[in-house]
Amino acid sequence: MSAPVTQMKAPTRLEYLVHAGATTTTFLHSILKGQLVGRRCPVCHKVYIPPRGACPTCAVLCTDEVPVSNSGTVTTFSIVRIPFEGQRLTPPYACAHIVLDGADVPLLHIVGGCSVDEVRVGMRVEAVWLEIPQPTLATVTWFKPNGEPDRAVNDRGEVVP
Predict the structure, then answer these.
(1) What residues make up the domain containing 99?
(2) pLDDT at 29
(3) How many distinct structural domains can be found in the chain?
């Protein structure tokens, strides 16, 4: 009797057609104009980017659209050094939570334009945009250091004013 099959490798391809809702559509239209916008919760006043239709804390609709800056502060980061299947970037590279000026919740994105050894908590960065915008957050290629002095970040990952 042969051993049971416990693993199998087979090429598979799945294609999805995703329809953006009203909040995401507005966000993608702003990206096409070279702008980043968030949404503010009317109860806790947090600004979320990418915008959310409802505040996850207060469970109320976020209706106020708020422009946010192309610049922000790295609040935490990770250096990816090990390649994996399907990876689009060549390691090493830095993934970071960036709190954009005017937002309260970090945006997960790539820090580029510098050595990964230079990336640090508190580092000030700015968005680098594709020349021809597309309706996707990938239109912001990465965030690069902008030369401003570092900002303080507390243990909860919040930028200290």
Answers:
(1) 22-145
(2) 94
(3) 1
Q: Cα separation of 84 and 152, whole Å?
A: 33
| Cα-based distances in Å from 129 to 4, 6, 97, 132 | 52, 46, 18, 8
Q: Is residue 70 part of a domain?
A: yes
Buried b (16+ CB within 10 A) or exposed e, 110-142: bbbeeebeebebebbbbbeeeeeeeeeeebbeb
153 is a domain residue: no
Cα separations in angstroms, 128 against 16, 41, 56, 131, 140: 28, 28, 29, 9, 6
Strands in 27-92 per DSSP E? 36-40, 47-48, 64-68, 71-80
Total-model pTM: 0.86
Over range 77-92, report the average pLDDT. 93
